[in-house]
Design a protein that fits this description.
Layout (H helix, E strand, L loop, with lengths): L1 E5 L3 H13 L3 E5 L2 H10 L4 E5 L7 H10 L6 E5 L4 H9 L4 E4 L4 H20 L4 E4 L2 E4 L4 E4 L2 E3 L3 H11 L8 H9 L9 H13 L8 E4 L3 E4 L3
Parallel strand pairs: 1-2, 1-3, 3-4, 4-5
Antiparallel strand pairs: 6-7, 7-8, 8-9, 10-11
InterPro entries: CheY-like_superfamily (IPR011006), OmpR/PhoB-type_DNA-bd (IPR001867), Sig_transdc_resp-reg_C-effctor (IPR016032), Sig_transdc_resp-reg_receiver (IPR001789), WalR-like (IPR039420), WH-like_DNA-bd_sf (IPR036388)
Protein name: Response regulator transcription factor
Keywords: DNA-binding, Phosphoprotein
Amino acid sequence: MKILIIEDDLTTREFVARGLREHGFVVDEAEDGHQGLMMATSCEYQLIILDRMLPQLDGLKVLGALRATENHTPVMILSAMDSVEDRVVGLTSGSDDYLTKPFALAELVARANILVKRNQFVAATVSSEYSYDDLRLDIKSHRVWRGSRLINLQQKEFLLLQSLMEHVESVVSRMSLFESVWSYHFDPKTNVIDVHIANLRKKLEQEGEPSLIHTVRGAGYVLRRV
């Protein structure tokens, strides 16, 4: 299991790298955003740990560049920017987790293991395909169609839709979606799910197409044709 750490603070980078190596991970290190992006796109990693404030290229730009090239390697943002708004921005930008500084190494290792194992599970189910009404989702190709129309989804939008399609016509709670897609403890003040669901609806429902994702007030969301 290979992890890339992109962190400009030498003390933090060496602390995290040493802790991960002690738990059996192979670790590469980058000290700025440009170097980190080059390494992330030239080698296969099971997880990228990414600082937000980096020289050369900041963390969110690194993340955006990765996702723009369909690189879906799990990313954990590591940052001293700890407000709810900062976490929402990090998560809605395509990261899989957001851990604020200062942090406990044991928690970082636990989260890293969760992200790596979840990614391995998805990879093990690459032949899976879901369909409902005129909607089709293929995990192997990471593509979604509505009828003959191919829909371009970000990774989190794809995982949210997959979770809903796994429970067609059943209400899925916000907490369940948050934990399954982000592997992150639920924060009732965070609107990250609502933002992603709104974007997902816009992409799935062009003019004249019936709505498929519905909000059940106080309960969650459901995929069904009404």
